[in-house]
Structure formats: structure tokens, C-alpha cells
Amino acid sequence: MTASLATPSGDNRTMLGIACGMGAGALWGLVFLAPALLREVAPLQQAIGRYLAYGLISAVLLAPRWRALKPSLMRRDWLSLLWLSLAGNTLYYVLLSTAVQKAGIATTSLIIGFLPVAVTIIGSRDRHAVPLGRLLPSILLCVAGVICIGWQALAPSTPGDSGQRGLGFLCAIGALISWTAYAVGNARCLARNGHISAHDWNLLTGVVTGTQALLLIPLSALVEPLRHTPAVWVQLAIVSCTVAVLASLVGNALWNRMSRLLPLTMVGQMILFETLFALLYGLIWEHRLPLPLEVAAFALVMTSVLTCIAAHRRHAAGASPAEIIEPAL
Questions:
Q1: Which candidate, 23, 258, 272, 290, has a CA 20 to 30 Å from the CA of 247?
Q2: What is the number of domains present in the chain?
Q3: In this structure, are residues 50 and 248 in contact, taking their beta carbons and an 8 Å threshold?
Q4: DSSP code for 71
């Protein structure tokens, strides 16, 4: 991946990367609605439904190119796909679904907005990355936004729901940690495997995730008995297929494309688009206006993204030609 931001081609890469990140965020934001639509379905069952659909569709799309692609896949690639599928899909979605059902869409979406802090700190260690000191204003703004929403999450509207909201808050933090590991690991794998297209990497991830979902069916049957009505099963199938196509296939493809266009210190910032769209969808779903702390968090998160982009442009303006063409990952 090239980290050029100073030349016109670099500007084009940056704008295309941001556009891809925005598109991925808009589609991924829909994921936060699924647990609200499927409140009668356990989070683990929701994850299995979504990723079985994702895996099946991925396998069908990958089949025509499998013979040509197979020789280029090493053992290390399969191990990477295994843990990335677990951290970024299966585990993440179970934690996120639980958080949405316990703490609400708005709370969960804004906690996930804390991801850029961790990814930016990790990315700042890359060669020729923007120094962490220049990214400090962006990080502090993001932290302030999370504090706002965390305060809101721990201030329940009714006396008896503090335990449930607290559990949801903890699950959202777990989802944040899981997806941070995925965002960093996936970006590094894409940079390392230039011989595999971002689209094929997405489909391979889908196949591995679908296999994991298949293996989780017996566990799900033991933990959560399958006693849903036919109408609930139909609803689960429709939501699973919709989320698999829009979020997992199209959204992940846009994210992988963005990960090859932007340095890691900017990759984390792009997840904030998911946060903003999820918050918007959540407010529409709940038929309400944002609370004051949610407005403050929204403004802080947006300012954090803009500050990060500005820091990268200033850094690129002072970079030497050798630094501009060096890989960022």
C-alpha cells in the first residue's frame, strides 16, 4: 500500500480511500439494526445465521477462481484467515448483538467509535507514519466522545436497568477490542499479500467464517434451544441474507479496498463512519432525537476524523520523496 498524500495521485488515493471507508461505514451501520429486529433470537444464533449466508454466497462466488487462487495460498494465510474471521466476524458480532440488545443501538455504536484510538496508536509505529504527537488532538477528541456516551450508558432511564445496560456496555467494549485486533491484522495481511486481490481476500474470509458458523451450530443448540416460530425463522433468514450481502460482502469489499489505499493511522479513523451511520439509523429506529451527550459525542467524533485527515495532509506536505513511496504497512 502506498502512503502518498502529497502528489495529485496521492490525493486521489486518499479521497478514494475515504469514499470507500464512508461506503463501508454506511453499510456496516445497518448491522446494528439486525439485533433490534431479531430480539427473539439469541446473539449466537444471529451470528450463525448471518455468517452461514456470508459463507455460502462467498463459496459460490469464489468457486470459478478457486483453481487459480489455491496455489498462492500459504499455511500462514489460512491461519490469518482463521483468527481474522473469528475476531472480526463471529466473536465481534456475538458481542455486538448482545450489546445492542442490552444497551441499545446508539450506546453500542458510539462505544465502537473508540476503535480509532487503538488503531491509530498501533499504526503510529509504522515506518514514515504520522508521529503520535501530531495525532494526539484527534485521539483526545475521540476519547472525549466515548466518555460522553459512556456516561450516558451508565445513567439508565429507569431504576432497574442499570445491570443490563452495564452488561451491554462491557460487551460493547469487548466488541471494540475484538474489532481493533481485526482492523490492524487485516490491514497488515492485505499489505503483505499483494498477490491476492481485496475481493478474493473478502471471499476467503467469508468461506472461513461460514465454516466457523457451521461448527457453532451444536454449541448454539445446547446453549439456546431452537424453539422459534416459523415466522421468526423466516425473519432470521431474511435479515441474515440481507446483512450478509450488504455488510459482509459489499461492505467488507469496500473496507479492504480502503485498507490498501490509506495508511493504518487513517484506517482506524474510517470506522467512525460506521459509528455515525449506526447512530443515525438507531435514532431513526427509536423514533427520537439525540440526547445532549449523544450530540456532543457526535460532534467530537466528527472533529476527530477531520483533525486526523488534516494531520496526515500536513505530514505528507513535509515528507521527502523517499518517504512518500515507502509502504505504510
A1: 290
A2: 1
A3: yes
A4: G
- Residue 287, in any domain of the structure: yes
Instruction: State pLDDT tens for residues 177-203.
Output: 898 888 888 888 888 888 888 889 999
Q: Which of 183, 248, 189 is nearest to 213 (CA)?
A: 248
Does the residue 3 lie in any domain? Answer: no
Q: In a 3-state reduction of DSSP, which class is residue 151?
A: helix
Say if 1 falls within a structural domain: no
Nearest partner of 259 among 201, 198, 326, judged by Cα: 198
**How is residue 45 written as a grid cell?**
444464533
CB contact at 8 A, 267 and 258: yes
* Dist. CA 236–CA 38, nearest whole Å: 7
C-alpha distances out from residue 263 to 109, 112, 115, 308, 310, Å: 24, 20, 15, 12, 14
Return d(Cα 275, Cα 20) in angstroms, integer.
15
Tell which residue, 325, 283, 304, has the closest CA to residue 107. 283
Q: Are 23 and 254 in contact (CB under 8 A)?
A: yes
- Please say whether the beta carbons of 278 and 26 come within 8 A: no
At 3 the three-state DSSP class reads coil
Pairwise CA distance, residues 300 & 318, whole Å = 27
Residue pLDDT, tens place only, 133-152: 777 887 788 778 767 766 76
Contact predicate 259/188, CB 8 Å? no
- Domain, as residue range, for 257: 8-325
